[in-house]
From TrEMBL:
Catalytic activity entry: carbamoyl phosphate + L-ornithine = L-citrulline + phosphate + H(+)
Gene3D superfamilies: Aspartate/ornithine carbamoyltransferase
Family note: Belongs to the aspartate/ornithine carbamoyltransferase superfamily. OTCase family.
Domain Aspartate/ornithine carbamoyltransferase Asp/Orn-binding: 152-310
Entry keyword Amino-acid biosynthesis: no
Molecular function terms, GO-annotated: amino acid binding; ornithine carbamoyltransferase activity
Enzyme class: transferase
Residue ranges of the TM segments: none
Designated name of the protein: Ornithine carbamoyltransferase
Organism: Silvanigrella paludirubra
Pfam families per record: OTCace, OTCace_N
Length: 314
């Protein structure tokens, strides 16, 4: 697969075959890590980690993945660089592209990421924007493969805010994987129309199914996996709109009643974390035997490592 030098803005940037290649490589590097094998494929590579939004899993995953492969990761937050303020994103990108072999961006606007890709001249990876979260979706599908085996036709139901970045990337990834994905959300929080259109194109090639439902009880029957995310994004906590959204999404909480209604005692529970227990999911479900959230969190590192290797290895 010719991914060297490529950026990852959204999962639509890669083909289905490239998607599966990244997953296969993820499983390989996870086994290497378990066997204490460190091939150091990225020695003398330097990676800039730009954080407009803070994170536990993303920062830790990129740092550990880079270190395991012999690369250096430099953390840059909003106080470290004049990003889009005293210096334009375009100029910052051209400077960082001269100094680093790759750039990770975790922030707000997709446009900022696109500018980094356009002007830096090095691979740029989307570690979360308001519209997409592709590295999370890679870890989600890797976890489903580990727990559910062959994913063709497996039913995954996302409950909650269908208009957010996690739902968007999960839709694309699930369609690539040939799954039956249901986005269960209020009508006002449906996913982006463009992403829906692109997923329907993928479905024609993969045989996957994409459905939308407003009723949790209708959506979850025979689900192999239930997935949710926080209802309020970072920085929105005090917004009036955020409080209204919480009220709107209360019927979409994953709890014991919802889990039992799947009629599948082995239904997997996933959450990208951090979770607000008692809001989008109850403590009981989060800590249950069905929960794979910490396998999912670990897999962020393995899938990120695969992405770094695939796009930067000489």
């Amino acid at each position: 697969m010719k991914l060297k030098g490529r950026s990852l803005s959204t999962l639509l940037d890669i083909s289905q075959n490239e998607f599966f290649y990244l997953l296969e490589l993820s499983h390989k590097v996870k086994k290497e890590k378990r066997d204490r094998i460190f091939p150091k494929r990225l020695i003398n590579k330097n990676i800039a980690l730009i954080f407009e939004k803070s994170s536990t899993r993303t920062r830790s995953s990129f740092v550990v993945a880079a270190h395991d492969e012999g690369a250096n990761a430099e953390f840059l937050n909003r106080n470290d660089i004049h990003f889009g303020k005293k210096e334009s994103v375009k100029d910052t990108a051209r400077v960082l592209g001269r100094l680093f072999d790759g750039i990770m961006f975790r922030g707000f606007e997709q446009k900022t990421l696109e500018d980094l890709i356009q002007y830096s001249g090095v691979p740029v990876w989307n570690a979360l924007t308001d519209d997409h979260h592709p590295t999370q979706a890679l870890a989600d599908i890797m976890t489903c493969q580990e727990k559910l085996g062959n994913l063709k036709g497996k039913k995954i139901v996302y409950l909650g805010d269908g208009a957010n970045n996690v739902a968007h990337s999960l839709m694309i990834a699930s369609c690539y994987a040939g799954m039956h994905i249901v986005i269960c959300s209020p009508e006002s929080r449906r996913p982006n129309d463009f992403i829906i259109k692109e997923c329907l194109k993928i479905n024609k090639e993969t045989g996957s199914i994409l459905e939308f439902e407003t009723s949790p009880m209708n959506a979850i029957i025979d689900a192999d996996c239930l997935y949710t995310d926080v209802w309020i994004s970072m920085g929105e906590e005090e917004n009036k709109e955020a409080k209204e959204r919480i009220e709107l999404l209360k019927p979409y909480q994953i709890n014991s009643e919802i889990m039992a209604a799947t009629k599948n005692k082995n239904t997997l529970f996933l959450h990208c974390l951090p979770a607000i227990k008692g809001m989008e999911v109850t403590e009981e479900i989060f800590e249950s035997m069905n929960s794979a959230v910490f396998d999912q969190a670990e897999n962020r590192m393995h899938t990120i490592k695969a992405l770094l290797i695939a796009t930067m290895q000489d």
